[in-house]
Design brief:
It contains no helices and 9 strands. The strands form 3 sheets. Strands 1-8-3-6 form a 4-stranded antiparallel β-sheet, with no helix packed on it. It has a 3-stranded antiparallel β-sheet with strand order 5-4-7, with no helix packed on it. A two-stranded antiparallel ribbon has the order 2-9. It has 89 residues and is an all-beta fold. It starts with a strand and ends with a strand.
Length: 89
């Protein structure tokens, strides 16, 4: 079963969130509803996604979060709904 949910980035960004990781998923789509979100994808570099940006995150791609705006809200659609996140560092 797939899941869709809004993620509100309420906590301030910390260095602990930079840790490279990947998700054991079949499908992951992220849409920025509000603010901005910065991440780094292995082999793809750093990207800043702003309100209205949308991306499909390839299954198993290693990535790290580099920051977000105080008002950041994301819509995530993910399959399967229950999945494992694996820390790669």
């Amino acid at each position: 079963m797939a899941a869709g949910h809004v993620i509100r980035m309420t906590a301030p960004f910390t260095e602990a969130q930079r840790q490279k990781h990947h998700h054991n998923v079949e499908f992951q789509l992220v849409y920025v509803l509000k603010g901005w979100f910065k991440n780094e994808f292995e082999g793809e570099g750093v990207h800043v996604m702003r309100e209205g940006s949308c991306w499909i995150q390839p299954p198993g791609i290693r990535h790290g979060v580099l920051g977000w705006s105080d008002d950041c809200e994301l819509l995530e659609i993910i399959l399967p709904a229950a999945h494992e996140t694996v820390n790669d560092e």
